[in-house]
Amino acid sequence: MLVNVEALAPNNSYGAPQFVKRGYYEDVPFTCSSCGSNEIWRAGQQKWWYEVAKGYVYSTARLCRTCRRRDQARRAEARRVHLEGVVRKRARDA
């Protein structure tokens, strides 16, 4: 899958990432930092992350899909609890 350099988010580094130098994305194996499972960050996922989501070009996958979803749910729940507390505090102070 070819790299569209114009679609990448601008960065102020002194060099290009390996996939830019190579000119195409390739599947990258990684180990999930949460559960330790061996995973593969597919070329299509990388293209979406760097070119569509405008992710930082030196970032890489660190969590498997299951752990990433669990982390997103945890953060959403924490946000919900926080906002409920803010609403209660404002109602109490009013």
Which key features would you list for this structure?
3 helices, single chain, 2 strands, 2 domains, elongated, 94 residues, mainly alpha, two-stranded antiparallel sheet
Provide a compact summary of the structure.
This protein is mostly helical and 94 residues long. It is 47% helix and 9% strand.
Mean pLDDT: 94
Taking Cα atoms only, what radius of gyration do you get, to the nearest Å?
Answer: 19 Å
* Spatial strand order of the main sheet: 1-2
What gross morphology would you assign? elongated
Number of domains: 2
Alpha-carbon distance between the two ends: 57 Å
Helix share bin: 40-55%
Secondary-structure element series? HEEHH
**Tally of alpha and pi helices:** 3
Helix-strand category:
mainly alpha
Could you walk me through the main structural features you see in this protein, from its secondary elements to its overall organization?
Helices cover 47% and strands 9% of the residues. The chain is mainly alpha-helical and 94 residues long. It folds into 2 domains: 1-63, no CATH class; 65-94. Strands 1-2 form a two-stranded antiparallel sheet. β1 and β2 form a beta hairpin. The chain is elongated, with a radius of gyration of 19 Å. The protein starts with 17 loop residues before the first helix and ends with a helix.
